[in-house]
Amino acid sequence: MDGSVFDSMKRYVAFGAADADRLRSLLPAIEPHFDRVVDTFYEVVTDHPDAMAVITGGQDQMDRLRRTLTGWLSTLFGGDYGESYFAARSNIGRVHVRVGLPQHLMFTAIEVVRRSLTQLIERTDVPDTPTAVDSLNKILTLDLGVMLETYKESHALRVRAREREAIEAKLTRAEHLAEIGQLAASLAHEIKNPLAGISGAIQVIREDLGREHRHTGILGEVMGQIKRLDAVVKDLLVYARPSDPRFDTCDLDATVRRVLTVLRAEPVMSGVAIRYTENSAMPAIEADEGKIEQLVMNLLLNAAHACQSGGDVQVTTDCTSDTVALTVADTGHGMDERTLERATEPFFTSKAKGTGLGLSICRSITDAHNGAFSLTSVLNGGTRAGVLLPRRQNHSG
Q1: At what angle do helices 17-30 and 129-209 cross, to 10 degrees?
Q2: Residues 22, 125: one domain?
């Protein structure tokens, strides 16, 4: 904020040289009564809990504030309303912001001073009292305007600081994810082919031994672990080398039904009640059906793992004129605040089994579709995952 703002405000309220001269001429008559104005002001302040909340320094601070108010009153009638006056009022506003004085109290404080000074002028033998009061009202309005500008300035600075922090955090995360992606891609490439060779060899050995051999069961367990490793490698490749979505017509409701049909046979779904009511009002959307299917599958598997046995998973879909929404809510163990903050970080998992990539992939797919991914959870109170997708993609540029 610069002095041009103050000049603009003076023009707006028609504050000119005549007003400045008039205020200067009032000082000798009313300055002896400043103590009474200060007393009245702080009688009001001490009766107001919100105002007293920022006065934490006891009597010493109160004495300093009284002296400051007396000085402010003197400059109010000083006659010099240029750059130095503007700078001083701006500093007062910044002090109010720093100590946490609510904005509404600035309005009420100025009004208390206005009433006291108006009564003082009216009781004092000054020429043309109405015009003098009008000049007083103008300068008090200007003071309030300048101080309120400092609140706007402070708010803008805080918003910019938050935006800068968010951008820096996003850049840091992007760099971190890029490094992880490179490492993941290298590991997946190195593991995939040997793993396929091991899987083939184990299958040959198991077939040669026959079903009745005492080691056949052990080899079956080995194959199970190989499949798990293969799933990890696939997740790594999906995360590390995500392909661009191929947008086409996608029926979200049909995709959810198809995924549920596939997953009902999975062991993790045993004992988990899945509730889903088809939404006939759901429109087709522009999306990569394969990736949306993967997103739905990951969310459902994650919810089922959280529920273990005996929990419930509720799947709902909804739409507006511009978006569609998918929500997967479970009654599982939930997450504490720290775990929730890191839940979509790659390779972070609280499960004994798993890669920690499921929710990361869900968010990546959502981002690739220009959507929004949300996650809320309460420890021992369940988790709710939400996906908001646009019905149509913007292909411009």
Answers
A1: 110
A2: yes
